[in-house]
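Revision sheet: structure tokens.
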Amino acid sequence: MIFAHFHGDEISLLQLFGRYRVSTMSSKSKDGEMMSALIHLMGGASSRGSSSRGAVEALKGLVKLIKKDGYNGSMAVDGPRGPIFKVKPGVFEVSRLVDGYIYYGGVHCDRAIHFPKSWNKTYLPKPFAKIDILWLGPFGPYGKDQDPRDPKLLAEAESLLISARSKAKELFDHSK
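Predicted:
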């Protein structure tokens, strides 16, 4: 199974990595090193690489973690460089390669430190923040007969992610 989400929600989702045996890709940058350390600390696994250095290696590593090591996958679908909230085809490629279903996730955090200059609107939940996460799915698995770059497929994924985010906020609003 593959958890698809927006890039800025990654820190809020770290809590799931140990419980659901989650793996992801992280870049070879200093930020990626820090994120990879957090992922391992939380009980998850990561495959290192980025769009400019080691992308194929990272993808192969993620596929191995899912297929051979029994992890679930997690993908920030609008990364690694944006534009924000625009789904890239990689999540459909991984679904095809691992014959896995995709769940689209939305996150709402009631108290956070926001980093407005980051391209992906990253935020850091404050201590004792309430985080609501909502998953829509399953969708797929996507086969060889489907083009992962199909604009309709990408638009549907974006719509599902935005809907999941909106529903996560509704969960929070109703729980007050």
